[in-house]
Structure formats: C-alpha cells, structure tokens
Amino acid sequence: MIEIKDNPKNGSGFDSLHTFGSWKVAFITFGKQYGDLSELKIVKRHTQTDEVFVLVKGEATLFSADGNENLTATFLEKEKLYNVQKNTWHHLQVSEDALLVVVENDDTSKENTETKILTVDEIKEIKK
Q: Which percentage of the chain shows pLDDT scores above 90?
C-alpha cells in the first residue's frame, strides 16, 4: 500500500509528515523559526541523533559550528544530502519558497536538544 501526504504548512516551518520505527520525515518551509535572518538568535544541537536535510526547492543556508567555533554558513544545493552530525550546533534560514526534507530520529525533542542563545557579536559576525 502507498500512503501519500501533503505538506500541512502549519506556519511553524517544521511539519512532521511520517514516522516509522525510530525515524521520522518532516518538511521545513519558511516560517518564524526558519525565516528572516533578523530572527536568527539561537542555534540548537541534538545530543542523540544526526539530522539530514535535502533542499527540494528555493534557497536555504545552514549555519553550523562544532564546539565553540564560530558559525559557518553553508549554502545548500538542490539534490544534495547534508548530514548534521549529533552535537553540532546548527540553524537553517530559508527563502519564502523553500522546501526541505528532513530525516531524524523520531524521539528528537526538547529533552535531547540543547539550545544556545547567540551573543550580539556572534549575530553581527553571521550577518556580515
């Protein structure tokens, strides 16, 4: 049997579409947490799982840092798989027409995700 699901586009920017066993698939679209660069104030890292991103359409920038390094920007290309390894600080900014596929552990949650508030200097460095 084949199950087909549409993107619910609930406005949050992250929409979980399917779970099976220990993994889930979600869509990321433009929304408050992934939208305008002026909203970039935090980064997150997952302590128990990698997270995979595939850009389907639009534009997206993946900010990442391992440890206490400065955040670096990676401009995502369509049809490439980007694996953010566990414990890597990261955040996405996407264009209004963007669509990304995300695969991660189904139990990824606040309990196994750390959040870091960026300093004013870190934000200035990103916006250069």
A: 39
**Cβ pair 58, 99 in contact under 8 A:** yes
Choose between 13 and 97: higher pLDDT.
Answer: 97
* CA dihedral of residues 91, 96, 100, 102 (deg, nearest 10): 50
For 24, residues 6+ apart whose C-beta sits below 8 A from its C-beta are 16, 17, 18, 103, 104, 105, 106, 108
In CATH, the number for domain 14-126 is 2.60.120.10
Q: Model's pTM, two decimal places?
A: 0.85
Provide CB contacts within 8 A for 67, sequence distance 6+: none
For residue 111, give the 3-state DSSP assignment.
Answer: helix
